[in-house]
Amino acid sequence: MNRTSLLTISLLTACVLQAQKVDPRHTNFYRVPAPVENDVVRIEFKDPVAQMAMCKVRVELTNKTTDILIIKASEIVFTVGGATYTPKDRDFVIRPNDRINRTLEITGGNMHHDAFSIKFGGASRLPRSEGKVKVPDFDVPPSKNSFTVGGFEVNLVNMDKETAKTALKFKVVYRGSKVALVDPSRTALRIESGQEFANASSKSKEVILQQGEDDAFTVYGEIPGKIVDMQFANMKLVWNDAFREVTPKPFSIGTVEFAVDPGLTEGKNR
């Protein structure tokens, strides 16, 4: 092959490579796919876009059950240009009959393609009616500050007793192999007459723990001073079914396909 032919090939190659270069600010806009829905969850999609360095889409997830739903972020897989990516995000936790909004985003190599897909793996539901752990009543004031039951290690870290109000803050560590649910709203304070008073906080939220995780929760008791002065009263914290160890039940969501919208992409990039 002579030098003229080599020069011609080199020039053509350079032109092709130049033509293939994409402005890093150019954004592909994709058609919004139909929602994914089954008996457990509904997922809606908004604003799917991609540039050279990133691809993202907003999702709204609605829990249609009375269970807690968990979707592991590490098992959500984007496929872009034949390569796979996982978003660096925390796990999705959707409480019963609730909805959450999140943005799924990946970064890396060339994300600027005409299509991509998202596979939702790692989805499971936590039945809140199962796995009750029987926990002995806790003395207030305490005879000891910590106890272990089932896979739970529980420690009283602070106590505030006033005439008509008591607050007990606990730290809990889960050592079991399932998923732990701790619901402070299930608790009650029992005075020596046998009368019980439910947790006074309407904002108490269920704590969800995987193996080795820990968290804190507070139990609040309110009793009128004419019934008992809580500063001096001997009481018991009754746990009822506040502690549960639940086996996750996997369910399938599937894969969603995204295709570029040529008209929208052209118009938005002018």
Quick structural gist:
With 270 residues, this protein is mainly beta. Helices cover 9% and strands 46% of the residues.
Description:
9% of the residues lie in helices and 46% in strands. Residues 3-20 have low confidence and may be disordered. It contains 2 helices and 24 strands. Strands 1, 2, 3, 4 and 9 form a 5-stranded antiparallel sheet that branches. Strands 8-5-11-23 form a 4-stranded antiparallel sheet, with no helix packed on it. It is elongated, with a radius of gyration of 28 Å. With 270 residues, it is mainly β. It has helices at residues 3-20, 262-268; strands at 28-29, 36-37, 41-50, 54-63, 68-71, 76-80, 83-85, 92-94, 99-107, 115-120, 123-126, 138-140, 146-149, 152-161, 165-174, 179-182, 188-190, 196-198, 207-209, 214-222, 235-238, 243-246, 249-250, 254-259. The chain folds into 2 domains: 24-127 and 249-268, Immunoglobulin-like (Sandwich), CATH 2.60.40; 138-246, Immunoglobulin-like. The longest helix is centred in the N-terminal third of the chain and has 18 residues, at 3-20. β2 and β3 form a beta hairpin.
Set out the fold topology.
Layout: H1 3-20, E1 28-29, E2 36-37, E3 41-50, E4 54-63, E5 68-71, E6 76-80, E7 83-85, E8 92-94, E9 99-107, E10 115-120, E11 123-126, E12 138-140, E13 146-149, E14 152-161, E15 165-174, E16 179-182, E17 188-190, E18 196-198, E19 207-209, E20 214-222, E21 235-238, E22 243-246, E23 249-250, E24 254-259, H2 262-268
Antiparallel strand pairs: 1-3, 2-3, 3-4, 4-9, 5-8, 5-11, 6-7, 6-10, 10-24, 11-23, 12-21, 13-14, 14-15, 15-20, 16-19, 16-22, 17-18, 17-21
